[in-house]
Each structure stands twice: as C-alpha cells, then as structure tokens.
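Margin note: ligand = pyridoxal-5'-phosphate.
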Amino acid sequence: MTNSFDIRDTKMIINLDILSSNIKEIKKFIGEEVKLMAVIKANGYGHGIKQTIDILVSSGVNIFGVATLGEALEIRSVDKDIPILILGYTPDRLLECVVNNNISQTIFSMKQAELLNKISKDAEKTTIIHIKIDTGLHRLGYEPNEKSLSEIINISNMENIFIEGIFSHLALANEEENDKQFDKFNNFVDMLSSYNINIPIRHIADSIATIDFPKYHLDMVRVGALIYGMRGYRRGSINEKPVMTLQTVIAQLHNIKKGEGVSYDYLWRASRDSIIATLPIGYADGLPRSLTDKGYVSINGHKAPFAGLINMDQCTVDVTDIPDIESNYDKVKVIIYGDEKDNAMTVNEVSKMLGTNKNDILTRISKRVQRIYVR
Ligand SMILES: *Cc1c(COP(=O)(O)O)cnc(C)c1O
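Resulting structure:
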C-alpha cells in the first residue's frame, strides 16, 4: 500500500504492522487488567493521526490521549466512538466544542469544572473528565491538599460531569522522587475514597515508567513514544521496533578537488579529491541544522557524513568512500533516520548527538515530508 499521490522522494515510511506489533507487545507486558492509552499528540509524534487510528484500535488501544483539542478533533473525524482524553489545557471558549464532540477533558480547576458542567447541562450531555493532581512536576494539576479535596468533592456532585479518571505525571527525576510522587498521589486518592469518591481509572505511568516500574501501572498506562518504537526505558525490556524510516534520494553528484569548499561559508573543505552528493532534504524538513558537523546518512549500508552546512531544503554528504556510487547514484535509497542494521542514524543516536530527546527530533519532521504508510 502506498499513497496514490506520491509527490516527493523525501519520505517518512511508516510501517503499520510494526505499529501494531508494538501495541501488542505493550499489551502483553501490562496484562489484561491494565488499560492502554495511546498518547498520539503532535501528529502522533510525527507519524500521523488519522492514518493510524484503525490499526491502533484494532491492536488493542482502549483510549487516546492528546495535548490539544485540535488533535482530539482529528481523531474524532475518523472514529466517532473511541474515548479521547485531552491531557492538557483547553481554553474556556472551546469547552463547548469538547462537549459537543464527546471528548473527555482533564480538569484542574473549579472554574472549568463549573463551566463544563453548565455547557454539558445545556447540551443535555454528561461529559467525562479526568482530574489531574500535581504531585511534584508543577506543570498542571490540583495540589493534593484539603482545599482541592473539597473542590473535587463538589465536582463529583455535579450532575452533568462524570469523573472517570484521576491522574498525575512523574518527573522521573530518580526512583526515590518517583516513589514520593506516587505515594502523594495514592494518599490523595485514598482521602477521596474515604469520602466515598471512588474514581475508576487511576493513572500515572508514561512510556518509560510503564516498562521500568510496573508497580506504577495502576488502572491504565499512558504510552506515547514507545508505541512508535522509541526506546527510553532502562531496566525493563520489551520487543518494540522503530515504526518509521526517514529517507530520501541523491539529486546530484559533484566531483570536487582537494581544497574546495562545500555549502555556505565553505565551512567544510575537501581534504582530498571528493565526491559530494546533494540530497533534497534540509532543516525545513526537520533535519536539524546542528547535525551539520556530527551526523551522517546511510547509503547501501555505508555511512556518508554531512559535508558542509545543512541548508533549508538541501544538504550535502561526502560519498567518496561509497563503492560504485557514480554508476548508480540515481537508484540508491538514502536513509536519514533508520535502523542500526542499515548503519543508519537512529532517532535515539541523533538525540544524543544533539543533547536533546527523541521526541524533540521526531516532532521536528515537518509537514513537507511525505508520509507513506506500508503494511
Ligand atoms: C506526552 C504525555 C505522555 C506520553 O509520554 P511518553 O513519554 O511519550 O510515553 C503521557 N502523559 C502525559 C500527561 C503526557 O503529556
């Protein structure tokens, strides 16, 4: 299966079978009792949303998590029924849209709870919410104190709101801090229980916590990066694989003489007579400009380092050492991000080179890069 409108040779190939197999591996790991939320914010970490919903649902995802209303609506446009939780902030003016589309919302203030209840009442609906508790990250959430307790008790009495879930997020600072956060969360949930407020779905684990600390699974895990085969865990292990390959082609070859410069400012100069390949991918496609003097691409299993500054739409690599490149440069596949077995840079490796994380690298891959879905 390929897209019928194949407009560019710089592509992200997304393997839906691997996506499905990653979900199944995660399900096997967490067991039958624990629900699986697939977090598919930021265009599914760059892998697309609409095109992946069916396979994710049929592989066993119970609910989707997103950061924004726009992402939730994208899922709704292809699946009318699947539960969707907005994990982040939604402006007051958009809560009506949340209600009308049967989307669940994270709540961390009385003001929004009241507003959501009123809108739901006017629409003759019951809106599902998950309460967020701040146990230390200090991003979003109710502080676990008496005041919050009484507010949540009030929310639980609102007629057009159903508190389906309660959750927190770990800073993953270290195991001791994790445990502190986990205990804070559980204590607060217990306090609510003592007021007879029993919220069915408690959750705190992201991808890393899910694999490294099964004791944090509770009723549901929220897995993002791992479904795309991005490994962040250290202790546990499952058999996930990268879902995508970022690839391009060679647009042109140049034979240059020792001493000649390449690309803006001639920052790279040939230390020998060289063959330079120009690739139609640049930083506007999400290839970080700062990879210029660190990264490489893979051509027929050989590494070809970047030669000169990565430009907006193009970059240049040194292919002098690649066998037979001159006779078949127009037929080769150039892998930008791939698998170690192709001698390609992995997203993990790139993130380390640049001192950032994998999600930062993944979500930079821009709209201009064509997504191709294969089975
Ligand atoms: C993004 C996000 C996740 C998923 O994170 P991964 O590390 O990609 O698994 C889980 N929970 C919340 C609240 C998030 O914002």
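Residues 39, 41, 87, 169, 206-207, 222-226 surround pyridoxal-5'-phosphate (CB under 6 Å).
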